[in-house]
Amino acid sequence: MPVFNIIQAVNDALRIEMRRDSRVVVLGEDVGKFGGVFRATSGLFEEFGGERVIDTPLAEAGIIGTAIGMALYGLKPVPEIQFADFIYPAFDQIVNELAKFRYRSGGQYTAPVVIRTPYGGGIRGGHYHSQSPEAYFAHTPGLKVVIPSNPYDAKGLLLAAIRGEDPVIFMEPKRVYRAAKGEVPEGDYTVPIGEAKVVREGRQVTVLCYGAMVHTVIEAAEKVAADGFDPEIIDLRTLLPLDTEAVLTSVRKTGRAVIAHEAPKTCGYGAELAALIAERALMQLEAPIVRVTGFDTPFPYSLENEYLPSPERVAKAIRDTVRF
Amino acid sequence: MLMTGRQPSSSEDELFSLIEDDGSVAPDGRPPVLSEVDALRLFRALLQVRLVDERMMKLQRQGRLGFYMQSMGEEATHLAVHALRPSDWVFPSYREPGAAFYRGYSLKDFTNQLFGNAEDPIKGRQMPVHHSARSANYVSISSPVGTQIPQAVGMAWAAKISQKDDVALVYFGEGTTSTGQFHVGMNFAGVFKAPCIFLCRNNGYAISTGYQHQTASRSIAVKALAYGMPGVRVDGNDLLAMISATEEAVARARAGDGPTLIEAVTYRRAGHSSSDDPNVYRDPNEPKEWERRDPIERWKRYLVARGIYEEAIESQYRQEIGEEIVAALAHAEKIGPPAVETLFDDVFSEVPVELEGQRQELLALPRYVSPHGGS
Ligand SMILES: Cc1ncc(C[n+]2csc(CCOP(=O)(O)OP(=O)(O)O)c2C)c(N)n1
């Protein structure tokens, strides 16, 4: 089995689906001849041509607005937003239009656009090349939100997303774009949207995470395991729809929950997870739920390492929760 | 349908330039009045951008600087700000450091910003090249392109509302004219006759994307027509023409006659940024064409033709600037990152209670080494 990084896995998924389904088109800034600033669409322009791998003008609202039109016509657009930080000019098209087309037309119209976008910090990118805006989209009924943490899931989830009937915000953890490597089967397979994955089984505490944070949490788990702690790690993979059963089953078993994400704490996705656990597993809890998150400041440049949840911060949360 | 509005005049199509190949000024041109002192000051300013860029790019390649963006070949567009008063306002993008320097931003502050160190005027908050120079009326740079355009219009409009004759000049690349922000800004400025100068550096590329993928318009300048303002196409490598066109636009703005769009036709000779490799998407010979049209060489020929160029002056400038860069770097590299506790400042005028709690939480943790080498 070939070993791929996440970029190669995404690229492979796009190529497979473009070969299989002539309705699939890729569009975005610099995605054509250049192959994207992270090279995720590399080689697609050469194979499928400029009609299906489209360099657009610099306008995210235009990219998403036209992708919606294409989808209404019956194409399967997979637009790329160069950095998640630049998705906001398209916010109106995503939140008011893409998310609501099916509902507001009573099911007559759907726009199953899959928006790929690299997100997250750890690349010394400051405010505007580091943000994690997943909560805005998870808060918007009508959008699915998918965040893989590794190459295998990236490929399988992207294929599932493109084949689905609903719009998807597909957020790629750019910090581990190249660092996260793994075996990826050749050819076709999908990973179902809406299923979390237990990355490490444990008895003492459930650690919920997704995307690049999964790697931080694994590192933290290795640290605390050396001291005899036994955390269970769940990679959510899909924030919406959430695999609530996986979350609740684990928390009911361990009686403790730590939630880790890069986005700021207040109204971050962790708040939703904490509320879910409080609503449906409160009686099984043996310690307060702890969130390890980015701070409630804009994403900084020089103090990035202090801002991002570190393995040390996660490890401390695990220890504190277990010892509570 | 009959076109009843103003027909495209020559100014939107023709390229306005003043400095001829031999350095003389076009006989039918209307050159701006420029003292010898200013002409030399501008020469030094052009050199400074070039020398700073070369040094910082080298530093980036050596791994001593996280990121950098060069302006090679576009320096003359920066110095359009010669046409402004210090009390006017500049809304820059990330590729006009010369405009900041010319308005008094020091090399020391510039370098500290690149390093995001404890003396960085913006406290290490942003990536390199995202300067902010309050004392120079040089407004904080944002990465999301185009956001500065309506803001500049608002600033200019505010001056008008306040019955002051301040103007605002906003810089952006031709790629940015594709954003909604550009069209919104132009429209508001037209409607409210805001004293705003839109200065588009048409350098041919937005990262890998060429002009023809950006717009089907025959020029950027012609876009002014639809918003009811004049548009001019200027040779962006001709500093005299840039200053002349900007002075005209500023005079119109101050007189209450509203905005102008200036398209500065130039070329991005280097990569988009230190992360870019332009050879993937363009013929490596293409930039060579533009080396012959170098704005600094052109200005030098103008100085020669005016009889005020001396080699000794140029080497003196080069030496002074070189020494300033070395000193600024030596200093900036010594300074550590900002104190950890500053992470929580400036989110609001005062730190809210919850955020103060987060600050204490961070300060209570064992510290780890920052990538700057400090702690
Ligand atoms: C809204 C937004 N989308 C995407 C980007 C990523 N990006 C950074 S610079 C750039 C190209 C800008 O080109 P142009 O406006 O022509 O200016 P130039 O870089 O040529 O000076 C792009 C696409 C961004 N900064 N902001």
Care to describe what's here?
- The complex is a heterodimer of chains A (324) and B (375).
- With 324 residues, chain A is α/β, with parallel strands linked by helices.
- Chain A has two domains: 3-183, Rossmann fold (3-Layer(aba) Sandwich), CATH 3.40.50; 197-323, Rossmann fold (3-Layer(aba) Sandwich), CATH 3.40.50.920.
- Chain A has helices at 6-20, 44-48, 60-73, 91-98, 101-104, 134-138, 151-163, 213-225, 244-254, 269-281, 304-307, 311-323; strands at 3-5, 24-28, 53-55, 76-80, 114-119, 144-146, 168-173, 181-183, 197-200, 205-209, 231-235, 238-240, 257-264, 290-294.
- In chain A, the strands form four sheets. Chain A has a five-stranded mixed sheet, sandwiched between helices.
- Chain A is globular, with a radius of gyration of 19 Å.
- The N and C termini of chain A lie far apart (44 Å).
- The mean pLDDT of chain A is 98.
- Helix content of chain B is 41%, strand content 9%.
- With 375 residues, chain B is an alpha/beta fold.
- Chain B is globular.
- In chain B, the strands form two sheets. Chain B has a six-stranded parallel sheet, sandwiched between helices. In chain B, strands 5-6 form a two-stranded antiparallel sheet.
- In chain B, helix 2 runs antiparallel to helix 12, helix 2 packs across helix 13 (311-334) and helix 6 (148-161) packs parallel to helix 7 (180-192).
- Chain B contains 14 helices and eight strands.
- The chains are: A alpha/beta (324), B alpha/beta (375).
- The complex binds thiamine diphosphate (TPP).
- Thiamine diphosphate sits between chains B (95, 143-145, 172-176, 201, 203, 205-207, 268, 272) and A (29, 58, 60, 82, 86, 89).
